[in-house]
UniProtKB/TrEMBL annotation, chain A:
Family as reported in the entry's similarity comment: Belongs to the ARPC5 family.
Tree of life domain: Eukaryota
Name of protein: Actin-related protein 2/3 complex subunit 5
Record GO biological process: Arp2/3 complex-mediated actin nucleation; regulation of actin filament polymerization
InterPro entries the UniProt entry points to: ARPC5 (IPR006789), ARPC5_sf (IPR036743)
Keywords linked to the UniProt accession: Cytoplasm, Cytoskeleton
TrEMBL record, chain B:
Gene Ontology biological-process annotations: actin filament polymerization; Arp2/3 complex-mediated actin nucleation
Organism of this sequence: Rotaria sordida
Entry keyword Cytoplasm: yes
Cell location: Cytoplasm, Cytoskeleton
Matching PANTHER family: ACTIN-RELATED PROTEIN 2_3 COMPLEX SUBUNIT 4, ARP2/3 COMPLEX 20 KD SUBUNIT
Name under which the protein is recorded: Actin-related protein 2/3 complex subunit 4
Top-rank taxon, per record: Eukaryota
Alphabetized InterPro entries for the sequence: ARPC2/4, ARPC4
Family: Belongs to the ARPC4 family.
Functional description taken from the UniProt entry: Functions as actin-binding component of the Arp2/3 complex which is involved in regulation of actin polymerization and together with an activating nucleation-promoting factor (NPF) mediates the formation of branched actin networks. Seems to contact the mother actin filament.
Chief location of this protein within or outside the cell: cytoplasm
Length: 174, 176
C-alpha cells in the first residue's frame, strides 16, 4: 500500500539523489519526470574557490633564492623558501624542487649558527622547517644526516613536541 | 617500576633523542573500532581502512644504512628499524637474530612477525599495549633496543671470529 507519506519520503530521497549525483541530470527519463516531481531543480553547488588548489599554490622562485644564496644571506634564503613552500600543491615535482632548495640552504648554514638561524625564523614557519628536516631524513645520501639531526634538535628546542605532532598530522605535506 | 632502563650516553645521542621525541609525539593512540566490520578492532596502521585515520609516515636516519620508519595512526604505531650491516657476516648475524626474535613475536607482544620491506625488524604497538604498559616505558624500550642491537651484533661477530680462530688453532695443531 503506497501512502502519500511514502511518496513524499521517496521524492525527498530521490531529490537528494539527483542533487548529489550529477549524472542523473543527463538522464532523459529524469528530465521528463522533473516537472512532475515535487522537487525544485537542484542548484549545483559550485566548488568553493578555497578548494581550488591552483590559486593557492605559492612556489619559491629559484632566481630569487639563488640571488640570496649568492649574497651569502643563507638564513634569509631559508626564510624565503619556507615562506613560499608549496605545501598546498599536488605536483610532486614542485615539492621536490622546493625541498631541494630548502635542504641545500640548510646544509650550507654552519652547525654553530643553526640555533641562531632557528630563532630568527618566525614562529609560524618553524613547522614548515621541521617538515623539511624530516623530508631531508628520507634522503640520507644527498643530505648529511648528522647535520639534520642537529637541526632537528635545535628546532625541537625552539618549538617543542607540538611541531612534531604537526608534522605527523598536517595534510599540507611538504 | 621495575628495573630502570640504564641511561647510556653514546655518540649517537642526537639520533636517539630525535627518535624519542618523534615517538613521544606519535604515541597518541586510543581505542578505535573498525568502521568497516562491526565488532572488529584492527590496528589501523596495518589495515589502512581510511586515510583520515593515518598520520604521515616519518623517517629518521643516522646515515645511509641506519634508518627508522615511524608510521602512526589513530590506534596503532608501526616502527620499522633498518639495522647497520657493514659486511656479509654482520648481514647473516643480523638476519638470524631478527628471525629468532620474530619467530617468538607472540611472547614479545609488540613485535611484528614480518618486517616491512626495506627494513630488518618491525614493531607494532596498539592502544591495547599502551593501556597495559606505560607509554614512556615503551619508548624507552625502543631506544634501548636500538642501542643494544648494534652491541649484540658486534659481540656476536667477535664471538664468531674468536671461535673460528680457536677451531683453526686446534685443527692446525695436528699438522704441527
Amino acid at each position: 500500500m503506497i501512502t502519500q507519506k511514502f511518496v513524499n519520503k521517496v521524492t525527498l530521497e530521490f531529490g537528494r539523489l539527483i542533487e548529489y549525483d550529477h549524472l542523473w541530470e543527463d538522464n532523459p527519463a529524469i528530465k521528463e519526470a522533473m516537472p512532475h516531481l515535487r522537487i525544485s531543480k537542484p542548484e549545483i553547488k559550485k566548488k568553493k574557490k578555497d578548494d581550488d588548489l591552483s590559486t593557492n599554490v605559492v612556489e619559491p622562485d629559484e632566481n630569487e633564492w639563488k640571488r640570496l644564496i649568492d649574497d651569502m644571506k643563507y638564513v634569509r634564503a631559508l626564510e624565503y623558501v619556507l615562506q613560499n613552500a608549496p605545501v598546498r600543491a599536488k605536483d610532486p615535482d614542485k615539492k621536490k624542487k622546493a625541498a631541494s632548495m630548502a635542504l641545500s640552504t640548510m646544509m650550507k648554514i654552519k652547525t654553530s649558527e643553526i640555533s641562531d638561524a632557528v630563532n630568527s625564523i618566525p614562529v609560524p614557519l618553524r613547522d614548515t622547517l621541521m617538515k623539511y628536516v624530516y623530508k631531508g631524513f628520507e634522503n640520507p645520501k644527498d643530505y648529511s644526516s648528522s647535520a639534520l639531526l642537529t637541526w632537528h634538535e635545535k628546532v625541537l628546542a625552539a618549538t617543542g613536541l607540538g611541531s612534531i605532532v604537526r608534522v605527523l598530522t598536517d595534510r599540507r605535506t611538504v | 617500576m621495575t628495573q630502570p632502563v640504564p641511561p647510556r650516553t653514546s655518540a649517537h645521542k642526537p639520533y636517539l633523542d630525535a627518535i624519542r621525541a618523534t615517538l613521544q609525539a606519535a604515541f597518541c593512540i586510543e581505542n578505535f573500532e573498525s568502521q568497516v566490520v562491526e565488532r572488529h578492532n584492527k590496528p589501523e596502521v596495518e589495515v589502512k581502512s581510511s586515510k583520515q585515520l593515518l598520520l604521515n609516515p616519518v623517517v629518521i636516519s643516522r646515515n645511509q644504512n641506519e634508518q627508522i620508519l615511524i608510521e602512526g595512526s589513530v590506534n596503532s604505531v608501526r616502527i620499522s628499524i633498518a639495522v647497520k650491516q657493514a659486511d656479509d657476516l654482520e648481514k647473516i648475524l643480523c638476519k638470524r637474530l631478527m628471525r629468532f626474535m620474530m619467530q617468538r613475536a607472540d611472547d614479545f607482544h609488540i613485535l611484528r612477525r614480518k618486517p616491512i620491506p626495506g627494513y630488518d625488524i618491525s614493531f607494532l604497538i596498539t592502544n591495547f599495549h599502551a593501556e597495559t604498559m606505560y607509554k614512556h616505558r615503551l619508548v624507552d624500550f625502543i631506544i634501548y633496543f636500538l642501542e643494544e642491537i648494534d652491541k649484540e651484533i658486534s659481540e656476536m661477530k667477535l664471538a664468531v671470529s674468536s671461535r673460528a680462530r680457536m677451531c683453526a688453532e686446534e685443527f692446525l695443531k695436528k699438522f704441527n
